[in-house]
Amino acid sequence: MTAGIHRLSDRQVKAHKERGRLSDGGGVFLQISKWGTKSWEFRFTLHGRTRSMGLGQYDVVSLKQAREEAETLRRIVREGKDPIEERKAARSKAAIEATTSILFKDAVGKCLARKEGEFRSERHGASWRRSMDAYAVPIIGNMNAAHITTQDILRVLNQPFEDGTLWEKRTETASRLRGRIEAVLSWATVAGYRSGDNPARWAGNLKELLPTPSKVAKVTKRPALSQADLPKWFAELRKRDGMSARALEFIALCASRSDEVRRATWNEIDLDARMWKIPGERMKMERDHRVPLSDDAVALLKALPRMAGSPYVFPAPRGGPFSDAILSQLMKKMHAKELKAGRKGWLDADTGLPAVPHGLRSTFRVWTAEQGYDRDMSEMALAHAVGSTVERAYQRSDMVERRRTMMADWAAYCRGVAPAGNVVQIREAATGS
């Protein structure tokens, strides 16, 4: 310890009331104003000139903190620098950086606002944000976007998850997350907040450091009802009241995605033409999709009450679309009821897991294959891409009228009625057309 410094004690500083200045040594002084307020001052001599600078109010800066700050300032003086000018320069730099820098979490919000019009649905945008908030923001959210490196991206993608890493255990999620981080940093670069290469870029960058997604990702099928269980499950579903039960019934009849049904509006439905036209912005493939409605689907829609002020076919109690979780919960309740009755429940035959709403599409696809329906027609019913880009350019028909018969037979099967006629003939007709 340097002789002559640290002369004061906390008790002295707290008790002293007299106006004036007390020296702690080493250029540190406690100043007391005529109003009794106390503040710290540091005095130094450089190049024959004595100057002073404030270190803060006593009620904010303790004696220990004032001494630590003074030690740093004395070091600057010993280097021949003026701490007052150094402080001015630091503040000026901070002010400039404040206008030309952005935290990653703030860049996420700004980038997301710009991309809102590109999302095919509100759910897509919400998923985009949730993945960022869950996996990226906790790790790099408070970093200056300009300072993020490839190693920081790897910390996000290789964060611990279950008994491995996010990239290993949730490869598809992690791969999407990487692309979203790349988009945010690309926006930050164009907006002037960073420069140089994008550290989240895959080709020639992360590709060399991470295993290829296709090598580590495990394709998981959604648990689906078996063909044998479907009619019994459908009969149980029809016994239930409520809008969510009717929405799930409509999903089964149309083999549609949950989001497509939950956000369906009455202006998309033509009951006279027995057709549901889903606009492309709500479709995964981003193109309009027509669904021929069976007699069962039409009867279901006609029986639905309409909520004043809500455009939705299956509105939640407050008028908006209800969450996807509601449908999943309904299927879980149906499964639990079966278990309580001593039965096996509604299980996927391959995995033994309880069936989920999306699995109904798999049940439909297996049924069409078993019944001999044309593959392309079945895929079109599911709104999947059929054939190559060139083939799709020439194949303009969506086979909607031929699909109408298939969906009528499917609805009959859901009710436990065998399809009328030899369905194999439909395939032969399709081949000859």
CATH superfamily of the largest domain: Intergrase catalytic core
SSE-based structural type: alpha+beta
Radius of gyration: 34 Å
- CATH architecture assignment name of the largest domain: Orthogonal Bundle
Order of helices and strands: HEEEEHHHHHEEHHHHHHEEEHHHHHHH
Strand ordering within the main sheet: 1-2-3-4
If you average the pLDDT, what whole number results? 86
* Uncertain regions spanning at least 5 consecutive residues: 388-394, 421-433
Query: What is the domain tally?
Result: 3
The oligomeric status of these chains comes to single chain
Shape summary: elongated
The helix content, as a percent range, equals 40-55%
What CATH calls the topology of the largest domain is hpI Integrase, Chain A
Which percent band covers the strand fraction? 5-15%
How many distinct beta strands?
A: 9
How far apart lie the N and C ends? 98 Å
Describe the 3D structure:
There is one protein chain. This protein has 3 domains: 10-100, 2-Layer Sandwich (Double Stranded RNA Binding Domain); 104-216, Tyrosine recombinase, N-terminal domain (DNA polymerase, domain 1, Orthogonal Bundle); 230-432, Intergrase catalytic core (hpI Integrase, Chain A), CATH 1.10.443. 48% of the residues lie in helices and 10% in strands. The chain is built from 19 helices and 9 strands. The radius of gyration is 34 Å and the shape is elongated.
